[in-house]
Amino acid sequence: MTALVLGLILFLGVHSVRIVADDWRTRTIADVGEARWKGVYSLVSLVGFVLIVWGYGLARQSPVILWIAPGWGRHAASSLMLISFVLLGAYGLRGSRLATAVRHPMLWAVIAFALAHLLANDTLADLLLFGGFGAWALLDLQAAYRRDRHAGRKPVPGGWPATAAAVGVGIGLWVAFAYWLHIWLIGVSPIARG
């Protein structure tokens, strides 16, 4: 569990700098340069990500059950993941009405992802991993909306073609993960059988 926790601290910590120290981040980028900042940021993120994957894999070998996931949790998770992938598609296609409506579709996608996985899983490692990402996304979303208000940013109206494309990309990603990639990468099929 130590590797998982350390990975979460590194990965979510570096991704939280803008939430807790935006002015410091801006000054540091000005002092050291954007390329160096991105290099260190990427390296810390990569180390954190590797520790998360490794630590979660280790924790799955001797799970600490905290609750019993409800039977309907897998079905709800599947629906929430469809929403998450559509929001991810909207993030990639900024001209969509979805991106305009939520302004920060990537963060909303992470929130849906975290909630989906908390409904379908029931261990301490799941709570740390998915709960950690969900809490981080909620805090980052609040900070992002606050920055938008402070800067006077208004959403740019989106169009229907980009919206349809975002939905199509999201559905395609969902199908790929639900039927093939999740079991290949994680070793568990998210689609309830029988």
Q: What is the strand and helix layout of this fold?
A:
Blueprint: H1 2-14, H2 17-20, H3 22-32, H4 34-61, H5 73-92, H6 97-102, H7 105-120, H8 124-151, H9 160-186
Helix pairs in contact: 1-4, 1-8, 3-4, 5-7, 5-9, 7-8
The string of secondary-structure elements, in order, is HHHHHHHHH
Taken as a percent bin, the fraction of beta residues is: under 5%
Radius of gyration: 18 Å
Number of DSSP E strands: 0
| Low-confidence segments | none
Q: What share of the residues lie within helices?
A: over 70%
**Approximate shape:** globular
Q: Main sheet?
A: none
Question: How would you characterize the overall build of this protein?
Answer:
Helix 3 (22-32) crosses helix 4. The chain has 2 domains: 1-62; 65-194, no CATH class. It is built from 9 helices and no strands. The chain is mainly α and 194 residues long. The chain has helices spanning 2-14, 17-20, 22-32, 34-61, 73-92, 97-102, 105-120, 124-151, 160-186.
Write a concise synopsis of the structure shown.
The chain has 194 residues and is mainly alpha-helical. The protein has helices spanning 2-14, 17-20, 22-32, 34-61, 73-92, 97-102, 105-120, 124-151, 160-186.
